[in-house]
Amino acid sequence: MARARADKPAEMWFVYIARCADGSLYTGIARDVQARIAAHDAGRGARYTRGRGPLTLCAVRRCRGKGRALSLELAIKRLPRAAKEVLLQPGRLARLRPSSRT
Length: 102
Known about the structure:
By secondary structure, the chain is of the alpha+beta class. Helix content is about 30%, strand content about 25%. The protein has 4 helices and 3 strands, in the order E-E-H-E-H-H-H.
């Protein structure tokens, strides 16, 4: 017997890369990126960004579902800083795959 499956649209999540005021890069996920950046700037975001604001949003990529966003976030966080800087160039983040190591 086949399982019943709800036909609901996939939730859209976003992976973003922001530059902190000290020049460091922060990668995160959110459903509403602008609200998340505002939370970071208000000191209610990730512990890493507290005291490092204001943040400048540098790149955003839409993902289907939280799982995909989390996988992509992890792939980006594993990259060296130089590779993250390359992702900030137009169109580069869109081509990154979660299994990429470059």
